[in-house]
Amino acid sequence: MLTHENDSSSLAEIRVEGDNSILLVDDDKPFVTRLARAFEQRGFDVRTAESVSDGTGAIRAAPPAYAVVDMRLGTGNGLDVIEALRQARPDARVVVLTGYGNIATAVNAVKLGAIDYLAKPADADEVIAALMRDPTIKAEPPENPMSADRIRWEHIQRVYEMCDRNVSETARRLSMHRRTLQRILAKRAPR
Predict the structure, then answer these.
(1) What is the pLDDT of residues 145-175, one digit of tens each?
(2) What is the pLDDT of residues 19-50, one digit of tens each?
(3) Superfamily for the 148-186 domain
(4) CA–CA distance, 146 with 20 (Å, rounded to integer)
(5) What whole-number distance in Å separates Cα of residue 5 and Cα of residue 89?
(6) Where are the beta strands (DSSP E) in the chain?
(7) Which residues form the Response regulatory domain (predicted)?
(8) Domain covering 2-132 in this structure, CATH number
(9) Residue 76 and residue 136: Cα distance in Å, rounded?
(10) What is the DSSP letter of 7?
(11) Domain segments of the chain: what residues?
C-alpha cells in the first residue's frame, strides 16, 4: 500500500508499506548506483545485480516485490531475469529499462509480466511512477509520432525477435546483407 506524506502527490514523498524490496539489474554500474541511491532515499530496500546470473541468484535468495531490469545485459537478456522473477513471485511489479527500445521486446517483456517499458535514460521518478501506476489507468499516448527511420528500425527489431534473435535468419527474411543488419542492430534506436 502506498502512502503520501502530508497528502502530497510528489513522487519524492512516496513510501511503500509492507514489502518494499526492489532489485535493480543493469550492467551500467554508474547508472545502477545512481538509481539505487535514489530508491534508497525513497524508502526502498535495494539490491543490485549486474548480470543475468546475479539477478536470478538474487531472486532465488529472496524474490523482491519490485524490479527494474535492463533489457540488454552483457551476459544475456533481461527477459530471462523477468521470467525467473515471475516464476518465483508472480505478484512482483517489474519495469524494463533499455537504451535499445523496440515494440517486439516490449511485447515480450509485457507477456512475461513487466508492467511498463521505459527508454534510458530514465530517472528515478519516472521509474517509480511506472512501478506504482494503477494498472487500470492507461498510459498517455506519445505527443510526437515515430519518424520513418524509427518505424523501419521497429520493423527490423520485430523481425529479429520473431527469428529468436538470429541475425542470419533475420537478414534473409528482410532481404538484407547480414553485416548491414548487424550494424543496424548495434546502434541505438532513432528518434
Answers:
(1) 667 787 788 788 878 878 888 999 999 999 9
(2) 889 999 988 888 888 889 999 998 899 999 99
(3) Homeodomain-like (1.10.10.60)
(4) 36
(5) 29
(6) 2-4, 14-16, 21-25, 45-49, 66-70, 72-73, 76-77, 93-98, 114-119
(7) 21-135
(8) 3.40.50.2300
(9) 32
(10) G
(11) 2-132, 148-186
